[in-house]
Amino acid sequence: QVQLVESGGGLVQPGGSLRLSCAASRSTFTILGMGWYRQAPGKERELVAYITIGANTMYGDSVKGRFTISRDNAKDTVALSMHRLKPEDTAVYYCNAWGGAVVDGRYEHDYWGQGTQVTVSS
Asked: Which of 22, 49, 89, 119 could connect to 69 by a Cys-Cys bridge, CB 3.0–4.6 Å?
């Protein structure tokens, strides 16, 4: 069983910066990718960014140019550097990790963190 530990959430003013981190523990499989999703009240969960062990990245349109995702494969950690934050970025941010074998088009392992609150407000 993999545990995803998130940190870095909090309150920040518009235009400010925040850095989220997520660390995977108890991994018994190869983590192929890690990323962040977020969910704001009244909205569906959406992709923020992800990064694979091959360094392929993907960003949600709303955060491109403002957020940067990075990873340390050896440590199974992922970080999200958020800049020029907007009130619209307010959401619960969830760390996600996946890997293992692919069965019927789905990864054998797919884990989620508990979520960390990011609030952008003046």
From this structure: 49
